[in-house]
Specification:
This protein is mainly alpha-helical and 303 residues long. The protein has helices at 2-31, 38-51, 57-85, 90-112, 138-160, 162-172, 174-179, 184-209, 219-232, 237-257, 268-286, and strands spanning 117-118, 212-213. Helices cover 71% and strands 1% of the residues. It is globular and about 60 Å long.
């Protein structure tokens, strides 16, 4: 019974991580940018929910979306767009996202304190379904459904619409796409906006389960999801999403099966990350192109 419960918990964690991977993979697919600051967008949304506890839950969620999307677009206008115009290297843009991430984290500490805030929005979704021995929470079902719908809609947008074609063209060659009449800045801004909307959804889902928000909220999760995106196959949105789910599922399983006390060989709290990343190293050695990508015949540069 404990094994089944562990697998259910792991699937729930995998669903949330898959949703984060959709947002991260979308930005990479269009901008070729690994956005390390994505976790701080989730943090900003979580703080927005915490600071609007006294409002109607619907209004509180609207404020969350407004804050996260506004912050996302500000990042694009102030940092990403000027770097694109200067044809900055991927390494330069990655460093810029690191700087933005720690800047937002520092601002949150200065303005909102280090003690954190508590979110009271939609806490009812954290109740278990029924009264059986196995615990299945409503928010887990919501997370799985939302992740599946979001990925499906994005794949349809990218592969079945003219706008999606323009997005892929801008991602392939920004300057040539502009010469051919594609409004590259516009389609890239739309992709960034969509990733911000997904970050807001993640903020709502995560705060239902973990309602205590601090300045480093979702930072560890973002690091794990970024690794999962690479493990799954960063060049494709669906493989990146599966990678996010896989590493979330593996994290949940290891957290359930590793002993919670003791010093050898692992303790759940102290050595969980070591076990997860050791598993990641093994996967990348065996499948360097990505766990869910068909191996290429020629060597491929990995991010």
């Amino acid at each position: 019974m404990n094994t089944i419960q562990t697998l259910i918990d792991a699937a729930a964690t995998g669903a949330v991580y898959a949703l984060m991977a959709v947002g991260i993979g979308l930005v990479f697919g269009v901008l070729r940018l690994v956005n390390f600051a994505y976790g701080q967008l989730v943090m900003a949304g979580a703080y927005a929910l915490a600071l609007t506890n006294n409002l109607n839950p619907f209004l509180s969620i609207l404020v969350c979306f407004a804050v996260v999307i506004g912050l996302t677009m500000a990042m694009d206008i102030v940092a990403f767009r000027p770097l694109r115009r200067r044809a900055a290297s991927p390494a330069t843009m990655l460093v810029a996202t690191f700087a933005i991430s720690f800047l937002l984290q520092s601002i949150a500490e200065l303005k909102l304190g280090v003690l954190g805030k508590t979110v009271g929005t939609l806490t009812g979704l954290n109740r278990p379904i029924g009264h059986g021995t196995l615990i299945i929470r409503w928010i887990w079902i919501v997370a799985i459904i939302v992740a599946a719908i979001t990925l499906g809609l994005l794949l349809l947008l990218l592969n079945r619409t003219t706008l999606g074609l323009h997005m892929r063209a801008a991602a392939s060659d920004f300057r040539t796409a502009r010469l051919l009449g594609v409004r590259a800045n516009g389609v890239i801004s739309l992709a960034v906006l969509l990733s911000g909307a997904i970050a807001a959804i993640v903020a709502v889902v995560m705060t239902v389960e973990n309602s205590y928000v601090t300045s480093d909220y979702a930072l560890r999760d973002t690091i794990i999801v970024l690794v999962g995106v690479v493990v799954g196959g960063i060049d494709r949105l669906w493989s990146a999403t599966l990678g996010g789910f896989a590493i979330g599922f593996a994290t949940g399983v290891l957290n359930g099966f590793l002993p919670s006390t003791g010093t050898w060989p692992f303790t759940s709290g102290v050595y969980l990350d070591a076990a997860v990343f050791a598993l990641v190293v093994v996967v990348l050695v065996v499948r360097p192109d990505g766990l869910f990508v068909r191996p290429s015949k020629a060597p491929v540069e990995r991010a």
